[in-house]
Design a protein that fits this description.
Layout lengths: L1 H7 L2 H24 L3 H8 L4 H9 L3 H14 L2 H19 L10 H22 L9 H39 L1
Helix pairs in contact: 1-6, 2-5, 2-6, 6-7, 6-8, 7-8
């Protein structure tokens, strides 16, 4: 684990995956905006029952359906970019703050939330491509996956900000150690 953490903590790796994440996010947002589907996607992600999901999808315009379908061109690989960015940034900030190996457990949820995005995409895409109709309990599972994914992403954002602030405040002590 030590060698992996050292490899991931390279700031260039964080930058590379941040650039890939931003480009991918921009492509997703642009695609969704073209069909006015941004709000609809969030509603679908945070829906927990098939009836509501099918109603939302049934009320969508053709442009929204097309935008939702096209966004998967980017969204299937998107978890790789933000997952690697999260791992690299977290590793870099942990190294800068000289956190010992006992904190390496923080990497586990950083792997889990991109995996949950894959689960969500895998469940949603057949419904959005209109190959099948959403059904329970699968909508509940997809909604939980999306909710946990967003919650963990928020936790990691707060953690990254906290580690950056900690480093900034304690930089002289950390540099001397």
């Amino acid at each position: 684990m030590h060698h992996l953490r050292r490899w991931l903590s390279n700031p260039r790796m964080s930058l590379l995956f941040a650039i890939l994440f931003i480009a991918s996010q921009a492509a997703i947002v642009t695609t969704l905006q073209a069909g006015n589907a941004e709000a609809l996607l969030i509603k679908l992600q945070l829906t927990f029952d098939a009836s509501t999901f099918n109603q939302l999808l049934g009320n969508a315009t053709a442009a929204q359906i097309q935008a939702l379908q096209q966004h998967y061109l980017f969204d299937y690989v998107h978890p790789v970019w933000y997952g690697m960015m999260t791992l690299c940034l977290l590793s870099w900030l942990m190294t800068l703050n000289q956190l010992p190996a006992r904190w390496n457990w923080l990497f586990i949820p950083a792997i889990v939330f991109p995996a949950l995005d894959v689960v969500e995409n895998t469940l949603h895409s057949p419904w959005i491509y209109l190959h099948s109709t959403a059904s329970d309990p699968w909508v509940l599972i997809a909604g939980l996956a999306a909710s946990i994914k967003w919650s963990l992403a928020l936790v990691y954002l707060v953690l990254a900000i906290g580690l950056a602030v900690r480093y900034r405040l304690h930089k002289p002590q950390l540099s001397a150690a």
